[in-house]
């Protein structure tokens, strides 16, 4: 492949992925990459339809593919409280009988279903698909940037990252960088270097924070809630999660 080839990347457009987006749009290695953003569904579709070479793929979309290649040692993950994947309710948890799924995230809905099936079965909680006509529920799974607004609206917040960690002892991985075809090692090295350079410089994160109100608490969100290294614990956690789903991982981690 020619040296001037640009690899097409697609990332989710949530706040938790902004460091990735900024890393590639401000890197000296920019000439190697062309980054787009989209919803989690659009990330999966772009990779599936060969409109992107590398995607930040939500793990809920992994089963759309037969064989994938891991591109990066970075991911979207958490090791405990994640803040932006939560059940919001005005009821205490033991009083919740119905929870409405989030319309935008198969991954978070899969996590909710897994917790409900394997850990909350005795509570007999009914999960409502977002397309169901019933508008009201005792609790609502709300993810991404909308969770910041929901914190002000509801009395209680039940964080799925924290609950998963308490019940399993594992961190959780929400999305990983993958490709359908093998990417040259030198390109992978440049890819990871882009992210590493950005995350290792606190001033880079400060530039992101400057665009958002202080009361969102994004500094703490990036430093305490979101965990970007796809380390061995997160790899083991992803394998464990897929075992609970009864599925095989289509990517060698």
Note the total helix count.
9
Low-pLDDT residue spans: none
Total E-strand runs: 11
Order of adjacent strands in the largest pleated sheet: 2-1-3-10-4-11
- Let me know the largest β-sheet: 6 strands, mixed
Order of helices and strands: EHEHEEEEHEEHEHEHHHEH
The percent range for strand residues is 15-25%
Shape: globular
Chain-averaged pLDDT: 92
Structural class by sheet pairing and helices: alpha/beta
Helix content: 25-40%
Structure description:
This protein is of the alpha/beta class and 253 residues long. It contains 9 helices and 11 strands. The chain has helices spanning 18-25, 40-48, 106-118, 146-153, 160-168, 185-199, 202-209, 218-225, 232-245, and strands at 7-12, 33-38, 54-58, 69-78, 85-89, 98-100, 126-128, 139-143, 156-159, 172-179, 227-229. Strands 2-1-3-10-4-11 form a 6-stranded mixed beta sheet. Strands 7-6-8-5-9 form a 5-stranded mixed beta sheet. Helix 1 (18-25) crosses helix 6 (185-199). The model has no long low-confidence stretch (mean pLDDT 92).
List keywords for this structure.
9 helices; single chain; 253 residues; six-stranded mixed β-sheet; globular; five-stranded mixed β-sheet; alpha/beta; 23% strand
Which SSEs are present, and which pair or pack?
Layout: E1 7-12, H1 18-25, E2 33-38, H2 40-48, E3 54-58, E4 69-78, E5 85-89, E6 98-100, H3 106-118, E7 126-128, E8 139-143, H4 146-153, E9 156-159, H5 160-168, E10 172-179, H6 185-199, H7 202-209, H8 218-225, E11 227-229, H9 232-245
Parallel strand pairs: 1-2, 1-3, 6-7, 6-8
Antiparallel strand pairs: 3-10, 4-10, 4-11, 5-8, 5-9
Helix pairs in contact: 1-6
């Amino acid at each position: 492949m020619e040296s001037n080839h640009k690899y097409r990347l697609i990332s989710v457009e949530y706040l938790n992925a902004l460091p990735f987006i900024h890393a590639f749009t401000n890197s000296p290695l920019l000439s190697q990459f062309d980054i787009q953003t989209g919803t989690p569904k659009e990330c999966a579709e772009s990779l599936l339809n060969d409109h992107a070479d590398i995607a930040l793929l939500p793990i809920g979309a992994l089963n759309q593919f037969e064989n994938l290649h891991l591109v990066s040692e970075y991911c979207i993950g958490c090791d405990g409280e994640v803040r932006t994947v939560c059940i919001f309710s005005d009821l205490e948890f033991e009083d919740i009988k119905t929870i409405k799924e989030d319309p935008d995230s198969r991954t978070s809905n899969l996590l909710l279903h897994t917790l409900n099936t394997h850990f909350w079965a005795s509570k007999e909680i009914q999960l409502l698909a977002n397309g169901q006509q019933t508008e009201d529920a005792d609790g609502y799974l709300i993810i991404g940037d909308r969770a910041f607004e929901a914190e002000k609206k509801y009395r209680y917040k039940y964080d799925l990252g924290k609950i998963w960690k308490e019940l399993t002892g594992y961190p959780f991985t929400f999305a990983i960088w993958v490709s359908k075809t093998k990417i040259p090692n030198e390109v992978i090295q440049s890819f990871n270097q882009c992210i590493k350079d950005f995350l290792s410089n606190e001033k880079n994160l400060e530039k992101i924070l400057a665009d958002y109100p202080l009361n969102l608490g994004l500094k703490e969100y990036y430093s305490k809630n979101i965990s970007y290294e796809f380390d061995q614990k997160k790899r083991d956690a992803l394998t464990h999660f897929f075992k609970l789903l009864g599925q095989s991982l289509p990517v060698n981690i």
